[in-house]
Amino acid sequence: MKVGIVGFAGAGKTTVFNALTGLTAEVGGYGGKDRPNLGNIKVPDARVDKLGELYRAKKRAYAEVAFVDVAGPAEGSSAGGLDARLVAAMRDVDALAHVVRAFPDPLGTRPTHPAADVASFDAELILSDLIQVENRLERLKKDQKATPRERDLFARCKAALDAEQPLRALDFDDEERHLMTGFRFLSLKPQMILLNVAETDIAAGVPAAVQEAAQARAIPTVTAMCGQAEMDIAQLAPEEQGDFLRDLGLTAPARDRFIVAAYGLLDLMSFLTAGEDECRAWPIQRGTKAQRAAGKIHSDIERGFIRAEVIAYDDFIAYGSEAKCKEAGKLRLEGKEYVVQDGDIIHFRFNV
Prior knowledge:
It is a single chain. By secondary structure, the protein is an alpha/beta fold. It has 2 domains: about 1-265, Rossmann fold (3-Layer(aba) Sandwich); about 285-350, Beta-grasp domain (Ubiquitin-like (UB roll), Roll). It contains 14 helices and 12 strands. The longest helix is centred in the middle third of the chain and has 29 residues, at about 115-140. The radius of gyration is 23 Å and the shape is flat.
């Protein structure tokens, strides 16, 4: 699954992308990249680190999130600002990380209004969706096979969009979401705000006005970081990063917090496997059942699933070993319908 790094030109999207990935994509200008930058990023997970220590594992493997750095429209381009290529790029991702500029314009020509930018960019997404919805309603009027349920659904979407309300703010049941799947509406995608601040504002946090603007548009997650400083840190050797962080008054890179938030935005969580050879976090959607989760490791394990031996991570840490967890009755045998929980340490039994 992919998270699109989006926002107005000049917000620092590529700088943030480099900070997250440690890559060196070209930075500068106000938009104009011909193609998106792509990068897979490991999701920090202290549980993998701890299990790796306890098992003295030869390898530690983390869940990954794919990030796409998407070119953005110029600020104030609400009249058709999203061209077809940009819309296609955003429709192709599963969630949006909206980078909002909160640092002074280097050229001194543009004011800094992060709360207004949150609303303005979302208005671009709403307009794009409204065009799609109106086109769909016109087709449904002529389609004799169209159901009242579908007509009512898109009429409800149009009413919300006309009122400048993003589709993510509405409640849809499973059947309605299925009817909407092929449209990949932009304002329906989960979204978070990344406030790109100046180095001098790192300790200030997120202004109340930005939080309020996000909440008003059903965007629950807002985080702040200095993209330029984080990019500089990412380019350093690990042993050199500590001094830089201390100079900034940080104990850890802000990018770690952002990556974890993006992982949650995708509605992902991790189950764990642990042993001397490898300790690994496996990404799955929340609500995934045990047999389906087994398929993340190998299709044969899913096909031949017998049962799952499960220990909650906190229980494992409290008792210190699998054997002691078993003695204490903390090792559970679960069937294929068991809903896997975040941090479950699982050993799958199977036969093919």
